[in-house]
Every structure is written in C-alpha cells, then in structure tokens.
Design goal:
The structure is a homodimer. Chain A is mainly beta. In chain A, about 5% of the residues lie in helices and about 45% in strands. In chain A, the strands form two sheets. Chain A has a six-stranded antiparallel β-sheet, with no helix packed on it. Chain A has a four-stranded antiparallel β-sheet with strand order 5-10-7-8, with no helix packed on it. The longest helix of chain A is centred in the first third of the chain and has 4 residues. Chains A, B: Catalyzes the circularization of gamma-N-acetyl-alpha,gamma-diaminobutyric acid (ADABA) to ectoine (1,4,5,6-tetrahydro-2-methyl-4-pyrimidine carboxylic acid), which is an excellent osmoprotectant.
Chain lengths: ~130, ~130
C-alpha cells in the first residue's frame, strides 16, 4: 500500500511548476498501477492549450471555476466542482481558469515524471522519456 | 471529449448505492480510457473491509476525515483532504469514516459498472462480469 500526502509532496520534486499551472504527481509510472495520478492547479486568469497526443487523460474539478474549449469543434464546456472531462480522442483543447482550479488527473499510459509540455502542447510518448 | 457532471450523474444509474457508501461512476470500461474513475462517498461513522483482488485502485480524499488500516500489517493511516492511497499490492484494508469522506477513485482494469462487492470484499474480475 502506498500512502502519500499532497501537502508533503508539494515540498518535493513531485511538484512540477510551469507557466500558469503546477502539478503534483502522486502516482507515476514507477508505481506500477498502470496509470498515473496528479493534482494539478491551474492559476487564476490563465489559459492553456494542451494536446496529449500520446496519452488518455481524465480530469475532475475539485475546486475552482473555468472552462474547456474543444479546439476541434469550438464547443466550450463550463468547469466547476463536480465536472469531469475525459480526452478519449486525444482532444486538443484550451483550458481557462477564472479562479484557481484544483483538478484530479489520471493519465494512461502513466506519466513517468520526466515529461514537460512540448511546444505543440503534448507530452512526449513514453518511448522518448524512458 | 467526454464531459460529465457528478451532480447530474447521481440522478442516473451511474450512482451505485451500498450499505454505508455510494459510488458514482463517471468513467467506466466502455469509455475506453483504460481505467475507470468514480466519486465515492463513505458515510459518516461507517467502516468497511474491501479487498480488490483483481484491480489496482488509487483513492484521493477530496473531503472528510477517517482512516485506512492495512489488514496485512495492522498499520493505520489517517485520511484527510490531500491524502492519496494506492492499493498496489491488492491490499486488503479497512476504511473508516469519522465524517463523510468524498473520494476520487481510479481503477485498473476499469470497472465495467456491473460489479458489486462480494462477500470477500472484492470486485469480480472482468471475466466474470463481461
């Protein structure tokens, strides 16, 4: 059994900081669960284009408000606590936070912990980070 | 892109009620994400023995307080918002809620939606529910 505390993990290299967001990786590929699990904070009044070409991701809003735009269709979905979105088509999307959003994220395949977002908004496939 | 709302899903058969807990399945095997994602509420002042012999599960505490006991070792870990546990050894465990706990749960392999907890605390393997 693995037990981890978000607040303690934020003091370690499990916390990855980027421009307008940060992510704390509570489970990574090395934990051998078959998925990774992250708590991600999208900072207030920021907007980000992401495109996980090599991963499936689900995101559950724990707190905060904003929106997700499906960049293939232009459809905008509000985000508030209790909303989950899942990028089952590797959907390119724009995530916008009106207030700081705290999101519980699952990735398949699991993130290794070495990824950064590339210029195209994707994470590298496992083969490029292993 | 899949977008689902916990509050709406609780009015559908995505909500499964059991004795002392309920679980709303926001993602199931049929969504083809490779994992399932559930928001589970453990009711106040209840205690439950679970043993997912056929699944890996991670659980993140969104709200509420309680504890998890590893029944192989007797070790008790407190649960509060920000604590995540992962049953990487298919650990048999006792989950106890002092106050209602809201938990974000990921399962691999994904739950099909047809499982119930069996007398031994497990979910049936996929081959028995498909």
């Amino acid at each position: 059994m693995i037990v981890r505390d978000l607040h303690a993990a934020r003091e370690t290299d499990r916390l990855v900081k980027s421009d307008g967001w940060d992510s704390t990786r509570l489970l990574l590929a090395g934990d051998d669960m078959g998925f990774s699990f992250h708590i991600t904070r999208i900072h207030e009044n920021t907007s980000h284009v992401f495109h996980y070409k090599h991963h499936f991701e689900s995101v559950y809003c724990v707190s905060g408000e904003g929106s997700i735009e499906d960049l293939a269709t232009g459809t905008v979905h509000p985000i508030r606590p209790g909303i989950m979105y899942a990028l089952d088509q590797h959907d390119r999307h724009r995530l916008t936070a009106k207030s700081e959003m705290v999101m519980a994220c699952c990735f398949n395949p699991p993130v290794t912990g070495k990824e950064v977002h590339r210029k195209d908004g994707s994470y590298a496939p496992v083969t490029e980070t292993a």
